[in-house]
Specification:
The chain contains ten helices and ten strands. With about 250 residues, it is an alpha/beta fold. It has two domains: about 160 residues, 3-Layer(aba) Sandwich (Rossmann fold), CATH 3.40.50; about 70 residues, no CATH class. The strands form two sheets. It has a six-stranded mixed sheet with strand order 6-7-8-3-9-10, sandwiched between helices. The protein has a four-stranded antiparallel sheet with strand order 2-1-4-5, with helices on one face. The protein starts with a strand and ends with a helix. Bound molecules: adenosine-5'-diphosphate and magnesium ion. The site of adenosine-5'-diphosphate has 11 residues, from β2 and α1. This is ABC transporter ATP-binding protein. One of its GO terms (molecular function) is ATP binding. Keywords: ATP-binding, Nucleotide-binding, Transport.
Length: about 250
């Protein structure tokens, strides 16, 4: 089986700074791959080259076998590459259910010509998603009044409404309390595995990384210096020297 996401020889420089140098990796369906490294290692630059916000200087990004370099962010999203946890993606005055319905509408929009109609309310679908993330009891509340962790769960439901086969999550638990972080990522992991979604995430909280990732790759100054299972990466002396020991 070929990987959902395949990255080969990715390069990006800003002026004289080599932000990403010859990075290659792959993510399979239902797999959670964590991309870690110190601040400035090149993690966000990598992400932005995968979602179309940044053009690589060199390299190939294949999603389901197709080279997506050069496509716009919206085109890549339409192919089935989702991003989670963008606070700005929710409407504060709309209810939790309405926000998920919007996401379902937006997904259906790309299938409109196939379905031949666009007038459904998606109430049942929205409630099914809210049930999956444990937010059905708050469906009527406006998103603007939610606790931060609850809002993150709504955003996860909205990302899943798009039925992505690849989810990109850049620091999904930023701003959350430590205990909430593991719980949120556990939920995301469980749903992603059940739906065979490939997940690539960056994360500063090592408890989250080591408890949730199937595999970990480590960036340092733009280069991949280690990769493997959590146990392998934890035991890698390079990683301990440049990252975990710091
Ligand atoms: P990380 O997400 O791992 O903290 P980044 O990908 O944000 O790292 O940054 C990698 C390197 O590239 C850093 O040295 C950073 O200063 C530099 N960099 C990132 N984006 C830009 C940009 N738009 N212009 C110039 N330099 C950048
Ligand atoms: Mg970053």
């Amino acid at each position: 089986m070929s990987a959902v996401l395949q990255v080969e020889g990715l390069h990006k420089s800003f002026g004289g700074v080599q932000a990403v140098a010859d990075v290659s990796f792959a993510v399979d369906a239902g797999e959670l791959l964590a991309l870690i490294g110190p601040n400035g290692a090149g993690k966000s630059t990598c992400f932005n080259m995968l979602n179309g916000q940044l053009a690589p200087d060199d390299g190939i990004v294949r999603f389901e076998g197709r080279d997506i370099v050069g496509l716009k962010p919206r085109q890549i999203w339409r192919l089935g590459v989702g991003r989670t946890f963008q606070i700005t993606a929710t409407f504060a005055s709309l209810s939790v259910r309405e926000n998920v319905q919007m996401a379902l509408y937006s997904h259906a929009g790309r299938l409109r010509s196939l379905l031949g109609r666009f007038g459904r309310a998606f109430t049942a679908e929205a409630d099914a998603l809210l049930g999956q993330v444990g937010m059905l009891d708050q469906a009527e509340r406006p998103c603007g009044v939610l606790a931060y962790g609850d809002l993150k769960r709504v955003e996860l439901a909205m990302a899943l409404a798009n039925q992505p086969r690849l989810l990109l999550m850049d620091e999904p638990t930023a701003g959350m309390a430590p205990k909430e972080r593991v719980a949120l990522m556990e939920l995301a992991a469980r749903l992603a595995r059940a739906q065979k979604v490939a997940v690539l995430f960056t994360e500063h909280d090592m408890d989250v990384v080591f408890s949730q990732a199937d595999r970990i790759i480590v960036l340092d100054r733009g280069q991949l210096i280690a990769g493997g299972t959590p146990q392998e990466v934890r035991a890698n002396p390079n990683v301990q020297a440049v990252y975990l020991g710091s």
